[in-house]
Amino acid sequence: MVFGLGNPGERYAGTRHNAGFMVVDALAGRAGVSFRKKLFHAYLIGKGSREGRSFHLVKPLTFMNNSGRAVRDVLRETEHTVVDMLVVCDSLDLTPGACRFRLRGSSAGQKGLESIIQTLGTQDFMRLNVGIGRPAHRGQVIPYVLARPGKDEEEAFRLGVEKAVDAVFLLLSDGPSRVMNEHNKKEPPSRA
User: Fold this and answer.
1) 17 catalytic, yes or no?
2) Does 118 reside within a domain?
3) Phi and psi torsions of 96, nearest 5°
4) To pair with 103 at 20 to 30 A between CA atoms, which of 1, 35, 89, 130?
5) CATH of the domain at 47
């Protein structure tokens, strides 16, 4: 189960906070997966396979801060558990172009992860963070994450999404240790 976090609607398309949606959309494109929305469910879901392994791609439609509700519903509906899930989301703590895989951990202030941790009652699920960097001033975080990447960072951001797609396919084929070895290289901290 690969959950890409973001905010639904045209207003948020292409924004930094929708990095998870972009990764899942790129995965769907590469794997030929189509999304569908089940009646009365707040998510889009598609099923695909790669190298003999099947997977689901999910985009919660609950908005970032309520992602946990959609994740819980998908797990119930598909009879999967947190052991089966990977959450893909943006990270202010990584520079644009970077991505980092973790087996578990805190939300680090990411509201979608916070919602999932609170709803499921555990931090023990895999996550893949896509770097978006930090705004110049601390008080600008909300407008920053809800904006599109600037011209100077567009290419790095796009490369970060592609790296994340490669990491998900590597996870499916070779497992978590290989992903960590390949994608968790030290990155300089983003400017605060």
Assistant:
1) yes
2) yes
3) -55, 135
4) 35
5) 3.40.50.1470
The domain total for the chain is: 1
The length of the chain is 192
| 162: in domain | yes
Q: Compute CA distances 71 → 20, 41, 47, 54, 128, whole Å.
A: 14, 11, 16, 18, 16
Cα–Cα distances in angstroms (integers) from residue 47 to residues 24, 28, 29, 122, 170, in the given order? 12, 9, 12, 25, 17
The residue to which tokens 């943006």 are assigned? 90
CA distance 108 to 27: 25
Q: Which parts of the chain fold into alpha helices (H)? A: 19-31, 67-78, 111-120, 141-145, 154-174, 176-183
Q: Tens of pLDDT along 79-92?
A: 899 999 999 999 99
Crossing angle of the two packed helices 19-31 and 154-174, in degrees rounded to 10: 60
The CA distance from 55 to 75, in Å, is 13
Using alpha carbons, select from 183, 46, 65, 152 the residue that is nearest to residue 113: 65
Residue 136 tokens read as 């110049």
Query: Is 109 inside any structural domain?
Result: yes
Q: Tens of pLDDT along 21-60?
A: 999 999 999 999 999 998 889 999 999 998 788 999 999 9
Residues 6+ apart with CB under 8 A from 144: 16, 134, 135
